[in-house]
Amino acid sequence: MGYVAPAPLAPDLRSIDARDLPSRNDSLTAQLSTVIGGPVGEHALIGRVRFWTPLRVLFAFTVIFLALGWTAKAGCIQQTDDGNGGLTLDWNNGRQYVAMCYSDTVPLYGAERLNEGAFPYKKSWTESTPDGGTETRYMEYPVLSGLYQYVAMQIGNVWDHLPLPGAMSVVVYFNVVALGLCVGWLITVWATSRLAGRRVWDAALVAVSPLVIVHMFTNFDALATAFAATGLLAWARRKPVLAGVLLGLGGAAKLYPLLLLGPIVVLCLRISPAGLRLRDIDSVEAARSWLRETPLGAATLAVVAALGTWAAVNLPIAALYPEGWREFFRLNTTRHADPDSIYNVITSFTGWAGFDGSIGHGEPPTILNAVSLLAFLAACLGIAYLALTAPRRPRLTQLCFLVVAAFLLTNKVWSPQYSLWLVPLAVLALPHRRILLAWMTIDALVWVPRMYYYLGEDNKGLPEQWFTGTVVLRDLAVLGLCALIIYEILRPQDDLVRRDFVDDPAGGILDRAPDPLLPWLPQFLRPKEARVSSRPACVPD
Predict the structure, then answer these.
(1) DSSP 105-153
(2) Is the distance from CB of 224 to CB of 421 less than 8 angstroms?
């Protein structure tokens, strides 16, 4: 006896069965999914929902957490009577620290003379120094970040002249800046979801990170994360020139996107022994072919495009306003150990005077600068050695996370919002949700003792060691993530991303590339498996 369907079958019954299903294979997500009906069905058709696609769900999560982040800073843009019939920000009695709503954006509006309509890098002013002298100051941010502040100020001025609800100019300015940063983080989430491949839901941790609530509007770092994430996405889509352009723009906003070029070059070196034979390039056509078709050629295009883009953004400002352009580099050379740096932590607990001892304002801590640089270079050499000798080629985002983490851990400056740099890279490099949420929570909670330490013990704040103690916990958490990533690099069979014959979703030309014998390297730098075999890194489709 036959059976007749009650209605015509759906015209397309395809299912994206390869997509990762966290509600079925991740215990934390499975428990959370009970709020909306439980894990996805065993026989469900995946990827057939018309509206609530994964990306739209991720955007909804992102908007919610961005709104929470704005709310967390809203206490610092409250207005009050200044006693003369005008308005001023209500930062009385250390409100910015007690309410933990402090944002660099608000004081920088006046400190960088944006309230005067000044063009960054052209405008200079005189400030008193702690030793009783004076110094000439300029805009202290990299070019793209400085121009972003200038554009936001101009938009705020236009708003003030429109028949729209008004507020103090600094409040309007903050909201304009915040809107742009929201766009930057939405782009970061989008690019991360595309870089995640079949594990698209891993990007949810970027959207709902506690660090978004605490630090999204503390400074301007979402600009850099957007350029870094889209630069990696362009590389994943085998567009090295575009990748270089985006990473170069990111480097013009903050330094760290340029650091991502290092892992790209090292991995391309690992799989491009023939690419080193530059003597074989004996014509223009041969050079073009080498650039288009070899990994090392693609890496060369990316590096040249990145440096060229960075120079194209910086050179006009450097030529027109050289003193203003140098201010960022001058301040980073002369500033001492940041409160969040490991060097200040040691000073806090031991009373150590630092490598340079007591030096005056404006004097560069020469030894500290050298130690910080050498420590970072040593870490990079270790990462490069790991990348070349690992039994299987590491994934690009694994090395990117290790390089950026090494930069933060060894640098003399770790501003709290820098932790946002690590969020997309961590999600792509180590998609273990409980571990990542634990680290993000620890890192976000460092903000509490930081604010109460800045409040001062005389105002019922916290001693310095309460703050530096939590910094130690954060650093240990980041080191733990690095250790887990290194473990998975050395044991690629335990890498969640590489299950089901997946290689490197963000690798671009590196994805599914075989590990060669690398005869151009000394024996101790060759991959352990490649010493005896040049078999492909994964089973091809």
Answers:
(1) HHHHHHHTTGGGTPPTTT--EEEE-TTS-EEEE---S-HHHHHHHHHHH
(2) yes
216: nearest Cα among 16, 74, 390: 74
Q: Enter the tokens of residue 269.
A: 């070196």
DSSP, collapsed to helix, strand or coil, labels residue 88 as: strand
Helix (H, G, I), strand (E, B) or coil at 79: strand
User: What are 319's two structure tokens?
Assistant: 């030529």
Annotate 268-303 with DSSP letters as a single string. HHHT-TGGG-GGG--SHHHHHHHHHHSHHHHHHHHH
Gap between the Cα atoms of 181 and 187, Å rounded:
10
CA count, 13 A, side-chain hemisphere, 49: 10
Distance CA 189, CA 146 (A): 24
165: its two tokens = 């609800």
Distance of CA 199 to the CA centre of its chain: 20
Q: What share of the chain is helix, strand, coil (3-state, %, to 5)?
A: 65, 5, 35
CB atoms within 10 A of CB 379: 18
pLDDT tens string 397-426? 999 999 999 999 999 999 999 999 999 999
3-state secondary structure of 320: helix
Using one digit for the tens of pLDDT, what is the confidence trace for 15-34? Answer: 666 777 676 667 777 677 77
Q: d(Cα 123, Cα 113) in Å, to the nearest integer?
A: 8
Angstrom distances, CA of residue 44 to CA of 41, 195, 296: 5, 25, 43
pLDDT digits (tens, 9 = 90+) for 126-144: 988 887 788 899 999 999 9
Q: Which distant-in-sequence residues (6+ apart) come within 8 Å of 374 by Cβ?
A: none
Q: 414: alpha, beta or left, given left = phi > 0 and alpha = psi -120 to 50?
A: beta
Answer for the pair 114, 87: CB distance below 8 angstroms, yes or no.
no
Give the domain ranges of the chain.
14-48, 49-508+522-527
